[in-house]
User: What shape does this take?
Amino acid sequence: MDAVLVRNLSKSFGKGAGRRDALKNISLRLPVGSMTAIIGPDGAGKTTLLRLLAGILTPIADEIRVLDHALPQEALALQSQIGYMPQRFGLYEDLTVEENLDLFASLHGISHAMREHRFNELLTMTALGPFRQRQAGQLSGGMKQKLGLACTLIHPPQLLLLDEASVGVDPISRRELWNIIHQQVISQNVTVLLSTAYMDEAERCDHVILLHEGEILAQGSPEQLAAPLQGHAFMLGDIPTATRNLQSRIAQMPGVVDTVIQGDGLRIVMQEAQPPRLQDGLASYGQPRAVPARLEDAFVSLLFSRSVRHVVPLPPHRDNAHDGSTIVEVIDLCRNFGAFTAVKDVSFTVRKGEIFGLLGANGAGKSTTFRMLCGLLPSSSGKLLVAGLDLRKATAAARARIGYVSQKFALYGALSVQQNLSFFATAYGLSKQHRQERMKWAFEELELQEYATMNASTLPLGYKQRLALACALMHEPDILFLDEPTSGVDPLARREFWARVNALAEGGTTCLVTTHFMEEAEYCDHLVLMSLGEILAQGTPSEIKAKARRDDRPNPSMEEAFISLIEEHEQPTRRAS
Amino acid sequence: MKWMRLSGLMRKEVYEIVRDPSSIAIALVLPLVLLLLFGYGVSLDARHIAIAEVVDQPTQLTASFLAELESSPWFRPTIYPDRISAEQAMMRGDADAILWLRSDFTRLAYRSGSAPIQLTVNGVDANQARMIENYVTGAWLIWLQQQAAQGATGIATPVIADTRIWFNPSLRSRDYLIPGLIAIIMTLIGALLTALVVAREWERGTMEGIMVTPVARTEILLGKLIPYFIMGMGGMVMSTAMAVFLFGVPLRGSLLILFGTAALFLLTALGMGLVISVLARSQFVAAMVAIVTTFLPAFILSGFLFDIRSMPQIIQALTHIVAARYFVTMLQSSFLAGDIWSVLIPNALGMGTLCAVFLGIALLRFHKRLD
Assistant: This one.
């Protein structure tokens, strides 16, 4: 039997000239007990599809049957059998963990006698037991997502719809979320349909649907999707230095679909099943060896042919911009919020022109540290110098040396792309001529010309991110702060974004970045791993990984290293709570 | 409809109200401030009118007239030596009016039986100017009457108007402002607060989470309606108690009718709030729409501050879709006159129609869908 059966489903929004097709003639079947992932670039229609299946959008279709209910007529009956977790799960932030659960239990008609048992079960599963009386607004991002999932599961659903449940969640919480979801599938025979920006999550599903501009580009098991690319993937190992530089050079070679930094090497995907021919100076790096293809390769190469991708060339390496001098210095930095210490004795230095990564679990103190560095928040104690100055006390001129891209891309939604750029340029006091030059630069380099007159609020996520980057770069700052700039952004847009960051760093701009994507941490020159407000480890990506090396795990990935180091550190605290 | 789901939603709403300072501010603090402000501060009565007196030739007769003005609570007279300095006082804003008794005042009073006085009023505030004119004329007539009674002068007594003021004999504007104010407060709680809290659910994404549960849309609507209805009635009790015990406004009608009227109005206001929140899904837009379509009309077009009968025809017609108009009339009648059925019934019918329309629209337009 099929849990979901969809024939020729279409959906469009808006009327007249503003009409936009979100889904075009989609057909799909999900067998009961299967686990399916929807992947695709931003604006592909993933959220729309999930909302349609949850019965909260009006469809145009030959047939939609979900759990044997015809939609949209039988939406109400369906809704007592499904669990749907929207992208931003709306927890009531003024209500405690228990009160949130209570509300959803009431809405699902769970008797009071049953509740206690179910609550205990869910709170144990999510490890939220100790926080039962805490208001949801005071939970960390990862805990909020877990509570959202618990609310969704309060009445054991037959179909679970999850819309990017793990966006903005640290690797540890992400693993916990996945364990819960898996448990549901195995023990309750729940059918799961989820959308995700993480390819490793999609790889764990039985079935993957690749959506692109409202159409299904490909579907099948992860192995089936990766199969055509077997023989296309290669690994170039043991690159001593300047990995980013090499990556950029290889990416520009003809026939190369994708290159990513992985550990100490480069992973290369070719258009044909032939290894890349490394000539000239590149030959010294040795011959790339063939590696098995994976789902991400399929994703990138399927979209490679469809969208014109811009390869960002690296600017010439400016040696004087990388003279090894210190540009950010932090000594014994502390920050308290009442009795709570968010940042405790943090010290590190950032050298000019490097990419500096700040990693840590949700609530580890990364954003607080960032805000102090930008001068948005005063420190409780400690020394803090950015470009030789304390930005909290510095003049506007000194502040103009930094650029900041926040998690939520602080853009003016009602202004067009052009107006946003112009506004930020004016705010930084650029002269008229200089302003026009920079806007021209932004339109060309970040390819925003096409969207110049579109309002920022209606831009696809990837373009919003580009625009936010452009706005932060209008005044050509020396130091760029990027706070989780790639959360929820699809793999392709993420690659492009990192290519730009690489180019900036190569040109001498120091980039400080926080991220939850561990593969992105590989791009950094220097990493600081934070946990519970303290620095746990710092060094190059290889040094960090070396710290997590065990006999049973001789070659840990960045994600494994992250999880094991943080869990080790947080163990005593977790036990205490 | 299932009681468990409804009670769950209502309990959630109560927690949110209790823990969110902004809704308490709108529901309790704002009404309190408005009541105190209007109760003590704002008054439409003209008291202590600064009047500049110029007497060209003081005599016993002029003195007796000025004494009459002096003894009145409405006036605060000041003597100026000549007309020029009195005019300057009016320019400076020190005087609201100039009363000029010319040199021939006494002579004409005895001889021809009619003594002219000249009153110059600052007409910038037309309302107050008219009041000053009436007050001075009244004082003048009273003085004339007294003079005639004493037979002191040969002044002919003109027709004396014997005025009786019903319902609010001491003409305290507070007595009719406060009942009107209650309508404003109920509009705030019913329409503005409700529109805001529903819009907040859209903004924070909580509505989407709620929608995909087996909850029925009537339950979502009632889950909002009932808590804010109770809160609004609480505001009504508070306002009524303050009106009667603190400001001494009489309550001549029955409590039952008063609260019945209030309940009907509150439902109408809640209906408006829900309609707004169905259309506006951001708090900013909801607040703007609620203020422009409910709060301001309740202030301006309800007859609370400005008499509807003196408005242009087209505006008068427009007031019929302002629910507060009916409520203000009914409240003023309940407080100042009593249960006057000929007032209550047509107004209740008008309000009931609006109530049914708004709640009907809310019910029809609110779907468990995002598009």
In short: Chain B has a mean pLDDT of 84.
